[in-house]
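Quick one, C-alpha cells below. Sequence please?
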C-alpha cells in the first residue's frame, strides 16, 4: 500500500466520479491559484498542481463537497444526472427479483435462521459457512455468464414467471423483468448475479423457502456481501445522495462496488 492509496477515494473517482462536483471544484481551485499567483507566482503554480492532483485522486478538493454539493445542485437551473451508470435506467438504482413480493420480512428472517442460512452470534447475524460456500459457488458460475445465460438464470430464480430480457445501458448490462400487471423492474448485473445465485444456493441447501420467500431473502442477503459478486472488488460505503445524483431527499447508506459503479445494497434510513 502506497501513501497515495491511503488518500484515494474510489467512491468518488473513476466510474463514480461526479463531474458537476469536479467542475465546481476545478473552478474554485482556478480562483485560488490566481489569487495565490498574484501574491507570489510560484505559489500559484504550486496551488494549481497540488489542487489538481487532489481532485484527480480524491474526486474533490473542497472539504465536504459530497455533503453540500447535492443541496447546492438543487438550486442550480440545470438538472445534473450525476455519475451513476444507472442514470438512464428507470428507478436509477437496481431493483430486486422480489419485486412486490408481500412476504413478511420477519417471517423470512425466521425461515433463514431455521433453515441454517443465517446464524446468530451474540447480537450479530452472520451467514452460515454452508450457505456462504454455496452462494459463492453459484455466483462463481454466473460471474462470466453471457447475457442470455444470466437472463435464463434470473428467469429461473424469479417468482411469478416474468418475461426476462437484458439491455445494454452505458456499456453495462441491466436485466429487465416484466410480470403480468406488475410493471417492470431493472436489475444491475451485480445484483442479478447476487440474487439469482442466492436463490440457487437456498435451493441447494433446501432451506425451506418457497419462490416468493427465496426472492425476498435474496434481496435481504445482499446486505451481507462485502465483495462484488461480479468483479470481487471490496465494497465501500457510499450514499444514495451520490454527490449531485439528485437523490437528496432522505439519503440512505449503500454498499457500493467502486469498480462496477453499482450499489449492492441500500440500507434502511439511519
Ligand atoms: Zn464489481
Amino acid at each position: 500500500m502506497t501513501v497515495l492509496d491511503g488518500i484515494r477515494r474510489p467512491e468518488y473517482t473513476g466510474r463514480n466520479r461526479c463531474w458537476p462536483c469536479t467542475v465546481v471544484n476545478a473552478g474554485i481551485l482556478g480562483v485560488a491559484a490566481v489569487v495565490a499567483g498574484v501574491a507570489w507566482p510560484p505559489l500559484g503554480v504550486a496551488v494549481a498542481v497540488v489542487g489538481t492532483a487532489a481532485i484527480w485522486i480524491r474526486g474533490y478538493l473542497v472539504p465536504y463537497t459530497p455533503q453540500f454539493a447535492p443541496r447546492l445542485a438543487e438550486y442550480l437551473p440545470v438538472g445534473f444526472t450525476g455519475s451513476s451508470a444507472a442514470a438512464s435506467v428507470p428507478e436509477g438504482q437496481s431493483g430486486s427479483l422480489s419485486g412486490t413480493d408481500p412476504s413478511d420480512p420477519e417471517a423470512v428472517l425466521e425461515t433463514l435462521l431455521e433453515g441454517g442460512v443465517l446464524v446468530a452470534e451474540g447480537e450479530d447475524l452472520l451467514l452460515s459457512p454452508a450457505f456462504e460456500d454455496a452462494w459463492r459457488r453459484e455466483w462463481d458460475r454466473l460471474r462470466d455468464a453471457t447475457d442470455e445465460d444470466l437472463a435464463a438464470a434470473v428467469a429461473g430464480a424469479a417468482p411469478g414467471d416474468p418475461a426476462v430480457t437484458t439491455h445494454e445501458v452505458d456499456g453495462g448490462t441491466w436485466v429487465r423483468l416484466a410480470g403480468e400487471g406488475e410493471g417492470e423492474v431493472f436489475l444491475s448485473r451485480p445484483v442479478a448475479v447476487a440474487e439469482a445465485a442466492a436463490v440457487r444456493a437456498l435451493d441447494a441447501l433446501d432451506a425451506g423457502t418457497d419462490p416468493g420467500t427465496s426472492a425476498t431473502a435474496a434481496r435481504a442477503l445482499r446486505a451481507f456481501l462485502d465483495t462484488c459478486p461480479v468483479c470481487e472488488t471490496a465494497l465501500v460505503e457510499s450514499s444514495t445522495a451520490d454527490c449531485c445524483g439528485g437523490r437528496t431527499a432522505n439519503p440512505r447508506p449503500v454498499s457500493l462496488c467502486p469498480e462496477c459503479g453499482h450499489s449492492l445494497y441500500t440500507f434502511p434510513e439511519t
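The pocket of zinc ion is lined by residues 190, 228, 230-231, 233, 257, 259-260 (CB under 6 Å). Strands lie at 118-121, 124-127, 163-169, 172-179, 183-188, 236-239, 253-257, 262-266.
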